[in-house]
Amino acid sequence: MPKVRTLRTKKPPPGYAEIEATLLEFSRKMKDAENTPHEGLSKRQSLWPIFQISHQRSRYIYELFYKRESISEDLYQWLLKQGYADGKLIAKWKKNGYEKLCCLQCIQSKETNFNGTCICRVPRAKVDTDKNVECITCGCRGCCSGD
After folding, report:
1. Which cellular component appears as one GO term in the record (predicted)?
2. Dist. CA 25–CA 31, nearest whole Å
């Protein structure tokens, strides 16, 4: 995941002060996740916490703008431009069937062996429940909206 750019060429729009503390908390969590030792884990497993924090931060901004309607359009666009949220992931969340999507790599058919979607996109009723199913890319245990 790309780091959040904090090059503030112009002042943030009004309303940023109310959410700044939460965004700084996400930034602190991201630094902790990047600096944790990952001996004994595969390269992909060491990136799972970073994917999860990025997802949480994007979901927080999505809910502020679309669900609660507590931030302005200008602030929302500024946050996307500064890299605080993933605009493409948020665009997918607005579509039917992708409301709980964990990352964009899980729906890219080029990333899988048989040109399908990731195992976390399969409804739990169709997966053997005895196994602990985890996405290889992000560690998700199921982001299908049909669960």
Report:
1. spliceosomal complex
2. 10
